Amino acid sequence: MESIFRCGTRKAIEELSKELNISFNSSMQDWSYTEGNPDDLEKYISLYSLTKDEDKKFILMQFIIQATEDQSSEALFFKYCERIKPILETEFKLHKYTIHYWSCFNNENLIDCWKITSLMRRIWSEK
C-alpha cells in the first residue's frame, strides 16, 4: 500500500523559516531535509509539541526525522528514535506520506537504506 503524495505549504514553510530563523527562498528544493540541523533537534521537537497547525507539524516532522537520521552518535540516534516513535504512531495519518517515504520500500536491503528506515517500516506495518 502506498501513500498519497503530500508536501509542505508555502505559508507553513515561510512561517517556520521565520520562527526557526532558517533562510528560505522559492528555489530551495527539499528545504525541510536540507536545512534541518541535528544540533537543533530539541528545538524542533519542542516547537512541534506547541504547534497546532497540521501543515507546520508536517514540515517539522520532516526536520525531526532528518535531524534524527543525522545524529552524530548511535546513542543519540536511538534516543531520538524513541522520542519520535510515539508521535509518529499517534499522528500516523498526518505523517503517513513521510513515514512511507522514509520506509524506503523500493529497496529490500536495509543496509542500502537510511538508518531510520527500520523504525519507519515497523510503524508502517503496525498501522
Share of β-strand residues: under 5%
Which structural category do the helix and sheet elements fall into? mainly alpha
Q: Count every beta strand, where a strand is a DSSP E run of 2 or more residues.
A: 0
Termini Cα gap: 11 Å
Tertiary shape: globular
Outline the low-pLDDT stretches. none
**Largest pleated sheet:** none
Describe the structure.
About 65% of the residues lie in helices and about 0% in strands. With about 130 residues, the protein is mostly helical. The chain has one domain (about 10-125). Helix 3 packs antiparallel against helix 4 (about 55-70), helix 5 (about 75-90) crosses helix 6 (about 90-105) and helix 6 (about 90-105) packs across helix 7 (about 115-125). The longest helix has 17 residues, at about 75-90. The relative contact order is 0.13.
Blueprint (SSEs and pairs):
Blueprint: H1 10-20, H2 31-34, H3 41-50, H4 54-69, H5 74-90, H6 92-103, H7 117-126
Provide the descriptors you would attach to this structure in a database record.
127 residues, mainly alpha, 7 helices, 63% helix, globular
In short, what is this structure?
With 127 residues, the chain is mostly helical. 63% of the residues lie in helices and 0% in strands. The protein is globular and about 40 Å long.
